[in-house]
Amino acid sequence: MLKHKRKYSINYIQPSWDGKKIAISITSQDKEISEIIILDIPSKTRSSEVIKNCWPSGIGGIHWLPDNSGLIYTHIPEIDKNSKNYILNKLVLFIN
């Protein structure tokens, strides 16, 4: 579980092709930049990994690979809105 007591909103959901996992993008305190968590449906568990600094509802979405072995999303290294590099130098990442 997420250890802090913030309120989160779900801003993007993408099930895997086989329906066994769901990638859920959550955001806190009305921020646009999100975190992605992965739920395993058969075991009813959440992956311990939290993918940070992404914005699937605004840039690129979340895409499962055809064999469900991982997903592709856009990572945003600079999330400070006051930085001149905000939302620059984005990366497309693959997680498996």
TrEMBL record:
Location of the Peptidase S9A N-terminal domain? 7-86
Q: Note the Pfam families from the entry.
A: Peptidase_S9_N (PF02897)
Source organism's superkingdom? Bacteria
Q: Where is the signal peptide?
A: none
Entry's Gene Ontology molecular function annotations: serine-type endopeptidase activity
Designated name of the protein: Peptidase S9A N-terminal domain-containing protein
Which organism is this entry from? Polaribacter filamentus
Q: What is the lineage of its organism?
A: Bacteria, Pseudomonadati, Bacteroidota, Flavobacteriia, Flavobacteriales
